[in-house]
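Feature request, filed as a ticket because there's no other form

It would be nice if the structure record came with a short human-readable summary line next to the tokens. Right now we just get the raw output. Example of a typical job, pasted below so the devs can see what we mean:
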Amino acid sequence: MANKRIDHRIRYKDIPNDKIYGVNNEIEVIKEKLLEYGEGAGDIDYKLQIIEMLEDLNYIEIAYNMAKKVQLSLPPESMKIEEVRKLVRRLHTAPIIEQKDLI
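Raw output as currently delivered:
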């Protein structure tokens, strides 16, 4: 018996347009909430988590700008400065893709 490989990936044509539209809207709402929470958060760890969530959603430019703001707001002696620098460097070199390419 031949070893057949089954392709379990979802094809775009298999997803109804209204479902795709709904997911796009939900992602946009999540992005807006993350931005809202990120601006209001005082805790650096919380802000870093939000930045990483934005990165996971491929909002690289937004995540980079937020990370730069955090980096500039930290005192040079902060214990988080190196972690933030690494995050800023990673975001700076991350490829930027348009959101419509994701869905």
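Something like this underneath would help us a lot:
Residues 14-96 form one domain.
The longest helix spans residues 17-40.
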